[in-house]
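Risk register update: the risk that structure generation would not scale has been downgraded. Supporting records follow, first protein first.
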Amino acid sequence: MQQERRIIIIAAACCAAHANAGLIASYTFDETDSGVPVSIIDSAGPIFSSGGAAGALDLDVDGILGSGVAFDGNDDVAGLGGASSEFKQTGDFTVALWVQLPSLAPNVQDRILDATNSNSGIGGAQGWRLLVNPGGAGNAFTLQLQANGNNQAGNINTTFGSLRDLQSTGGWSFIALRYDIDGEASISVLYDSDAFASAALVSTNTQSVASDGALSYGALAAPRLGANQSGTGGYFSGRMDELRLWNTVLTDAELAAEFNGVIPTPASLPIFVVASVGLAARRRHG
């Protein structure tokens, strides 16, 4: 058993080193608000020009790792910058985060992250959205990806109906959106109970749709977390944590390592320490 654990740690370390090479933004939501607005700080790469004013958001809640951020489903929204936002990627990218849903189903088309220039349908819009969408009776959910390529004849507007449902029983779900301009857009969903997830498990719980070239963004595209483009609707109900963005398409193995608890750490730490800390953290919250 001890030898097996060493192998897992070494494998996670190797994947983490590769994945972090393309990391350009990371939000841990470990800030505290104490009843006053607090900026949500980016802990990797350039800080967004507008920071990300928390407003009424509760940053003093338990996350998957340390503190998370809570959205009440009524008026909570985090702004993630405007014209210079790192989330307005035109080429390959990966965005991953943890989501915890309440026991009751959210409203239709709750925004997780909206990086479009429109509050309405995707037709004619520019950019992409990641939404939660009720997917049947009870507390079943699906994910919906909407994107618009620069010279696309049509729009990607797909509900991944057979994708693994998001947990709505108090547990955390790991969501990863990967966009390959020359191949496909895919969404992966894992549960916090998937201890030491492998690349094979990531592959099993991934659904894809063909992509169509580089993305473009209109002048109004100001990425929002937990609401629509203007921050006036589509409000998310639940918690989020550990939001990260890469300007590369992560492999299944790299996503498995990310899921297994690899988090930003000082570059001076030896890589085996980085992996050990991450895996220990996952065991505490799993």
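Supporting record for the second protein:
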Amino acid sequence: TASAQQARTAWGDPVIEGIWTFAPDKDVNPVCGDQDVVNGCQEGDKEVFRQLGLPPERLSWPGSLVRGTPDRQIPYQPWARAKQLQRKKYRLSANPPGIEFISTGARCLSYGVPSTVLRPGFHVWQFPTHILMIWEQPFQMHRIIWTDGRAPPGADVKLLQGFSVGRWAGNVLRVTTTNSNGFPWMGTVAGDFYSEHVRQMETFTVLGPNQISYRVEIEDPTVYTQPWWMEWHYTVAAPVAATAASAGPIGKGGLSAGMATNTSELWEVACVEGDRSHYIESVRPRRY
């Protein structure tokens, strides 16, 4: 049950503005997220870490985020599982067989839904007609969730982030995303994917002034044998109006939610399509 002290916008919706990061709980610890944001750090990821020069102790993801299946794995159809494994095989290849073997993130393109919201430290802004999400990293990415009742565009319109429409029911925001072009990877190296026929249903439940529960159900009968879902929690470092009266502005003694909360402004991390060198340098360990 949401807190009775939850602030409201001028048009009556719960205030969720601020910089979102994962709540520090045992179920979400995205240290290994760049390697496999869905299935977690697995045995094969040790070789990835070795190639990148990353310390093995970073393999601390608690396990698969997949729910709704007996083995907690994405329920691929046989042909789709073969495709996913092939993509993972060539994920670090210097000469991949084709562009589909290079993740959209490595190409400085959008990560798509739900991979974008698996990346903490993004800023959320609210308007009467829509909700805007902006990421500092990766690559000045943004997402719009329309809340004014508009219908999705025709099926011939395909977008990297898809087209998201949402509606509030009390303290619960339900969002449906369609019109994907099927390009985004769910992660940067694991090869997990969906097609242009995917339908994603997200639920953002406001639990209090700075806590949000998130769930996403993914349907794609052309790729999966059944729908499946994931869930986790967010902590929000929100403006003063949405936090306790004693909390100050972000970065000035107020609520600190972790990554990127030391400033009220996210700075652009520049990257352009095809700039693989930027991505490769970003995942290499820095030497000081």
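The beta strands are 18-22, 122-126, 130-135, 142-146, 163-169, 172-178, 199-208, 211-219, 228-237. On this basis the risk owner (M.S.) recommends closing the item.
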